[in-house]
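Hey Z.,

So I finally got round to the pyridoxine-5'-phosphate thing we talked about over coffee. Here's the setup:
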Amino acid sequence: MSEIVAPHLRLGVNIDHVATIRNARGGAHPDPVRAALAAIAAGADGITAHLREDRRHIRDDDMIRLKAAIGATPLNFEMAATGQMLDIALAVKPHAACLVPERRTERTTEGGLDVVAGHDPLVAFASELRRAGIRVSLFIEPALEAVEAAHSIGAPVVELHTGAWCDAVLAGDTAKAAADFDRIVHAARRAHELGIECHAGHGLTFDTARLIATLPQVVELNIGHFLVGEAVFTGLEAAIARMRAAMIEGRQAVRPLHQAGAGS
Ligand code: PXP
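And the result:
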């Protein structure tokens, strides 16, 4: 078996859909902050929450309560690049801000940021966050031009959108899944070459997280919907433990990082 030299693969647990369930009845239960604390107790390395413009799940006071409750555990604030979100992020001061595209009519974040067309405004936006000590990551398509545009924006981190690949895997479309995975592999390698920290997320399950974990350049996964869904059947702690086990299994198949750029 290969020597494992890939860095620890962090798990960021996204608790948005605990808030979705809470909001279905308009009360306070289940509380996403309680879910965040349970996720940390179960081994999450960080907590992720997306404050959407329409506040369909996480609300402003959830972000404030999350920051206060989770202490030193990193809080990753997913947000659209708008003036209102910037003000909130500067007030909450999360560890990291992940800039995502947002459309009111979408069911979830359907694609990556248009980092090529949005280049100049993103440079200014990211530098405001950076000045406040907030680490900026850009949620992008797994495409070389997107990684290169993120580099020229000066982003220290990119998160590769794994949604299209996960959908192809679930649909049993093996040709598309293979092509999409290949794009992720190449984008992760390019990010690493450019000195950008590489994260991945969207639509990940136990099986797809295990596969993504084999990419040594990827150092963080952000996973929400599947874990909250599994928690209905097994509890959040068991779902996170099983996800962690899948990630470790994937990591054990990793080739040493210095060899990972060669071949396919
Ligand atoms: N990463 C980003 C940037 C996202 O927008 C989302 C969805 O909010 C996720 C990860 C998590 O996706 P999922 O809920 O499908 O696991």
